[in-house]
């Protein structure tokens, strides 16, 4: 299947090499790891990391004893991930996974859904994840929340750019994102109930939703908290206590939706 050339170009330039390893993006990383550690079956369960990028999550999963296979459509990502101890990596598309069905103990989609603006493609990716998982296995998918782009635009000052307010306000209505990064690739941001509907239609009923960053990603001093081990643990504990509060889900930059097959 064909990947959006703008998205491919962004990632081939190394756009994902440091996003979750530096700055406030680390909050998304730590919180994703925190939630998954509580939900995944114990190691050495088999984890299929779909759209796993350069292996930022595959790395810690393999280090903790999981049997990890990473599938990603970007050659640079596969090349980098394959260097990680205990990680098998190969090219592949979330909408047509190059794996047999019913074998993975857990399937992770921690990036593909927000690069698939067309609903039919998102449903296909979720259906493929369900197919790849064994009966009783876990499917976990990350989505960008509908309000994240506007929050981020104010945080960084992008909203001051000419024409940017119209782009952000349209995204609130349609979910279609146009990146402010080089290349201007398109993405998709989910409404809070929309991910429930898509999971259900893909045969994954009653997903649980976890707000990953809460409001903390919007705090100006969040990097200071993440830089200090003690403060970081306090921050993660605070986020953990609020992660399923319905009134706060939309404040998070990302949600993790999780269902059993």
UniProtKB/TrEMBL annotation:
Q: Which GO terms describe its molecular function?
A: methyltransferase activity
Q: Which parts form a coiled-coil structure per UniProt?
A: none
Residue span(s) of domain Methyltransferase: 47-137
In its keyword annotation, does this UniProt entry include Transferase? yes
Top-level taxonomic group? Bacteria
Which keywords fit this entry according to its UniProt record? Answer: Methyltransferase, Transferase
Q: Which SUPFAM superfamilies match?
A: S-adenosyl-L-methionine-dependent methyltransferases (SSF53335)
CDD domains hit by this protein: AdoMet_MTases
What's a BP term from Gene Ontology annotated to this protein?
methylation
Pfam family name, one: Methyltransf_25
Protein name in the entry? SAM-dependent methyltransferase
Q: What organism does this protein naturally occur in?
A: Nonomuraea rubra
